[in-house]
Design goal:
Protein-tyrosine phosphatase, receptor/non-receptor type domain and Protein-tyrosine/Dual specificity phosphatase domain and Protein-tyrosine phosphatase, catalytic domain-containing protein, protein tyrosine phosphatase activity, alpha+beta
């Protein structure tokens, strides 16, 4: 056991010695591992991927969007029991994001006096008869940070995938539940979380090394944060999420979350499962079948039509990257996909965008301690506890691209407006006029 700790410590130290070097992103995606442990680099995988891409292009973007809305209607008619969710509203980030009883993670509260009850807004994503591969959960609230870490400990999970930022569009999406530097170690009840180091493993993916200690026992946890994925939207890099899956899923089970734990989180889970099934299946697979299966475990998995389309787009990009399909064969689908994406990000009044992004940038700078500094420089900044600490950026292998961050904020805001406008159009408005006044009242 002592040798294992020593070797792990050496491995972490080696990883943190990437001071001035940037980790290169390979042109060809290396998919040797995924959550379910299958190797997709096989002839079966390639043949199934080709069949999937051809079938997807035949169906087309418009029909895939229709398919998604049919799946939405189907889910509303097949809601499962969620009594524990109803009884624990203070532990739920969003009141309309249900947590099903039969697949929820049950905290072992009897053996821990600090756990209020056995509820946490998290679900197993496969049958308990199978080997546990991953758990989907919401971004921790202030009053559920301890429960979140107890779940990590209980599951014996070594990896966490975080697909959101603390602040997005000026709104808080998740609590800062892990320490960002050695001066901010977290202690709650009998739990201590120690910061060991962090660096960029790929562009927009930060890996943080943490030590979790409970009652004298300790484990090393790897925390992966994806910084290029807007709420209810999709990232600009189609293949980077596959690298994230490969990196984070070498140890199982993996705990995955965004803000609600269904949109971005569900997209990653469905993508991973599709990759796994392409390696073994003998029939042409459809993502809708994956989605239906995953929604049996967690409500609302894959939240928007563009996320559903994105799943198809990623696999098309993978086929192109592997050079097993030609650009001509997928050109029409890509053109249609881009047209849908461009409609979602139609321009809005620039003044409002600038106000929103200014709030978001300030909030995230405060949370992350990421300033426009060169590697190795330090500067005093104000942290959440309103005390000034010395933040060192030596452990980063590359700085965050602020220009790209601004674009993501704009796209996120565009997407929210598009969805709001679309919902308004879909609702039938009945206008009634109050005969006793000049006021016109619109009801839905």
């Amino acid at each position: 056991m002592e040798n294992l700790k020593t070797n792990l410590s050496k491995k972490i130290k080696r990883s943190l010695k990437i001071k001035g070097k940037r980790t290169q992103i390979p042109n060809v995606i290396d998919l040797k591992d995924n959550i379910n442990g299958n190797n997709p680099l096989t002839e079966t995988f390639n043949n199934n991927l080709i069949a999937f891409v051809k079938n997807t292009c035949e169906i087309g973007v418009v029909n895939i969007i229709k398919e998604f809305h049919e799946l939405q209607l189907y889910e509303k008619k097949h809601i499962k029991n969620h009594k524990a969710f109803d009884s624990n509203s203070s532990k739920c980030r969003y009141k309309d994001i249900l947590c099903y009883d039969d697949s929820r993670v049950i905290l072992q509260c009897k053996s821990n006096r600090f756990v209020e009850n056995d509820f946490i807004h998290a679900n197993y994503m496969n049958s308990k008869k199978e080997n546990l591969s991953c758990v989907c959960t919401q971004g921790p609230l202030q009053n559920t940070i301890y429960d979140f870490w107890i779940m990590i400990w209980q599951l014996k999970s070594r990896s966490i995938i975080m697909l959101c930022e603390i602040f997005e569009c000026g709104k808080k999406k998740c609590e800062q539940y892990w320490p960002l530097n050695s001066n901010e170690n977290i202690k709650i009840n009998n739990l201590t979380i120690v910061f060991l180091g962090k660096h960029f493993v790929y562009k927009n993916i930060v890996k943080t090394y943490l030590r979790i200690i409970i009652d004298g026992k300790e484990r090393i946890i790897f925390h992966y944060q994806y910084l290029d994925w807007p709420d209810r939207g999709v990232p600009s890099n189609y293949l980077l999420c596959l690298n994230l899956i490969r990196l984070a899923t070498k140890t199982r089970p993996v705990v995955i979350h965004c803000s609600a734990g269904i949109g971005r989180t569900g997209t990653i889970v469905c993508l991973d499962d599709m990759i796994s099934k392409l390696s073994t299946s003998e029939k042409c697979l459809r993502i809708k079948h994956i989605l239906l299966e995953k929604r049996e475990f967690r409500y609302g998995i894959v939240q928007t039509e563009i996320q559903y389309l994105f799943l198809h787009r990623v696999l098309i990009s993978l086929a192109l990257d592997k050079k097993i399909i030609s650009e001509e064969e997928v050109a029409q689908f890509i053109q249609q996909y881009d047209a849908v994406l461009n409609k979602i990000i139609d321009p809005l009044p620039i003044k409002k965008i600038e106000q929103e992004e200014e709030v978001t940038k300030k909030a995230n700078i405060k949370q992350h301690g990421l300033l426009k500094l060169k590697l190795g420089e330090t500067k005093k900044i104000e942290n959440d506890s309103l005390t000034k600490t010395q933040i060192s950026l030596e452990t980063f292998s590359k700085p965050i691209d602020k220009t790209q961050g601004d674009e993501l904020i704009r796209r996120n805001e565009y997407l929210k407006t598009y969805i709001t406008q679309k919902k308004k159009k879909e609702k039938k408005k009945i206008v009634k006029t109050d005969t006793n006044s000049d006021t016109t009242i619109a009801t839905t």
